[in-house]
Amino acid sequence: MIKNLMFLISFCFLVLSCKTETSQPPVDKKAIIDSTITAFQKTLLEQQIDSTFKKYHFNGSIAVFKDSLPLYRKENGYSDFKRKTKIDSSTIFAIGSVSKQFTAVMILLQMEQGKLNITDKVSKYLKEFRIKEYENITIHQLLNHTSGLNMMGGKLMFKSGSDFFYSNDGFNTLGKIVETVSGKSYNENALELFKKAGMNQSSTGDVFKGNNFASAYLGNANKSEEVPNMPKRLGGKEIGTPAGGILSTIQDLHTWNNALYGGKILKPETLKLFMAKSAERRHAIFGKMGYAYGIMLNIGKPNSYFHSGYIKGSPSLNIYYPETKTSVIILSNIADEEKGKALVFKPHIEVKKITDHLENTLNQLRSEH
């Protein structure tokens, strides 16, 4: 299918370049080529992602948007298995660690207001860091997981700034800093950010009051167990709202990607800081990648910013390809943990491979013509 796309687009370029001027109105070559590419994108995505849905009996929602144009969208399965409530376009999911980019942006917004600097030591704002073990940890090191912090109160994994170790407690600490310097709760800051981005259905597990939440389940469609106390449990010590407690929808995450990377949330120089690779991570499922502030980056092509999320029963993935302004969002509410997270995220991995390959093909065509 990819080869067919390359052939047809190349053929379009050839035919259009060979047309001679006549008395007819000039041909809009770009519009013709763009519409041809879009048609093939939609067909390819439908065939390949539909196959992934069927292969894994995927219970959830997957969507691909190019800027404001939907290229693919499908919901399948139930948000509530007992009541047989079907997932639809308004279903709200727990997004796990996809939440971290929101916390990072809240920190950077406080920086833009002059209330902190990312090079500041955390001990400047939080007394629990005024001990010898933690006194040199900086906000920057919490943002890119290079602080060495594992769990609060424990010994550092390494000298701060010398390595990478993924820490939920590090991001929960960032949430406390936001509260300290803003004088508002994390939830208040989050709701203000959602409003600024135009995210009308997003919330945190602490304050959620809606009816469209997708209950989380462990197991499979034949035998499952509901995760108790959702979504309130997201705010507890085991997870923490700044590290993984945000709730959102396919549409809201698409809106967020466009607003964030389109420069509507952060100033240009701050956005560059947010996106800049400052560490490397070897992810157990997605492999080697770069890490910025609450987001991961492909090493090599295509250029993309993404983050996976997982809290019990809710695997998620949010990808943004800046060169084509394309968002790929995958949300689910059931996970068979007994088979391991590698299998739980198999659909997400396959969709990412599909969209990575398509993105590389489009970029190649653009460079050739």
In short:
38% of the residues lie in helices and 19% in strands. By secondary structure, it is α+β, with helices and mostly antiparallel strands.
Helix/strand layout:
Elements: H1 2-18, H2 29-56, E1 60-66, E2 69-76, E3 78-80, E4 85-86, E5 93-94, H3 100-112, H4 139-143, H5 168-182, H6 186-197, E6 203-204, E7 217-219, E8 224-226, H7 241-244, E9 246-248, H8 250-261, H9 268-275, E10 279-283, E11 287-291, E12 296-297, E13 305-311, E14 314-321, E15 326-332, E16 334-335, H10 341-344, H11 346-368
Parallel strand pairs: 7-16
Antiparallel strand pairs: 1-2, 1-15, 3-4, 5-9, 6-9, 7-8, 10-11, 11-12, 12-13, 13-14, 14-15
**Helical stretch tally:** 11
Order of helices and strands: HHEEEEEHHHHEEEHEHHEEEEEEEHH
Oligomer: single chain
In which order are the strands of the major sheet placed? 2-1-15-14-13-12-11-10
**N-to-C CA distance:** 20 Å
Poorly predicted residue ranges: none
Radius of gyration computed on alpha carbons: 22 Å
Helix/sheet category: alpha+beta
Largest sheet: 8 strands, antiparallel
Globally, the shape reads globular
Mean pLDDT rating: 92
Percentage of helical residues?
A: 25-40%
Number of strands: 16
Range of strand content:
15-25%
Tell me about this structure:
By secondary structure, this protein is α+β, with helices and mostly antiparallel strands. It contains 11 helices and 16 strands. It has helices spanning 2-18, 29-56, 100-112, 139-143, 168-182, 186-197, 241-244, 250-261, 268-275, 341-344, 346-368; strands spanning 60-66, 69-76, 78-80, 85-86, 93-94, 203-204, 217-219, 224-226, 246-248, 279-283, 287-291, 296-297, 305-311, 314-321, 326-332, 334-335. The strands form 4 sheets. It has an 8-stranded antiparallel β-sheet, with helices on both faces. Strands 5-9-6 form a 3-stranded antiparallel β-sheet. The mean pLDDT is 92.
